[in-house]
Design a protein that fits this description.
about 35% helix, about 25% strand, four-stranded antiparallel beta sheet, 4 strands, alpha+beta
């Protein structure tokens, strides 16, 4: 018995990116469609997307392959396949630029504040301090935090006091 190919495989991807770095090659492909609007009961949906990511090492050995499906409220005019793939990719920039920095610089995952509004307040304070340090052009937030922790009298200068 032969297996039938996925319907997505019958059509070439509408957009594809290939990035090389960190000893691997990552290929991303996207298919999008607004033809399912009458068939999906999901508020404000405009398009469905299928994103395929493949990661290989430099020798071509497959390290990871994943397929992600999604629904967006963006119309094809506002976000075609290229923009949708870029938006999806940039989403992880938030994780890498903020959440990772919060965890590494402030050891956030081990924080014991867990009740009422405490966690939200602490996250806001951490975000504020990271934002201030970025405005001061510090590229290494952990190093900057150590610097100002060792010289607390300098911290008020950061906000003009």
């Amino acid at each position: 018995m032969t297996s039938r190919p996925s319907v997505w495989r019958l059509f070439p991807p509408q957009h594809e990116t290939v990035d090389k770095g960190h000893g691997r090659i990552e290929t991303r492909r996207i298919w999008s469609s607004n033809k399912l609007k009458e068939y999906i009961e999901f508020p404000h949906h405009q398009q469905v997307v299928r994103i395929e990511r493949s990661v290989t090492d430099l020798a071509g050995n497959l390290l990871r392959h994943e397929i992600v499906s999604g629904i967006t409220s963006l119309t094809p005019e506002k976000a075609g396949p290229e923009r949708l793939l870029k938006i999806c990719r940039e989403h992880w920039g938030i994780e890498n630029k903020l959440h990772y920095v919060r965890d590494i610089s402030y050891d956030e995952d081990r924080c014991r504040i867990r009740t009422k509004s405490g966690p939200r307040v602490m996250a806001a304070l951490r975000n504020l301090s990271i934002g201030i340090l970025r405005l001061q052009k510090h590229s290494n937030i952990a190093k900057a935090v150590r610097h100002y922790a060792a010289k607390p009298y300098l911290t008020l200068n950061l906000i003009g006091i």
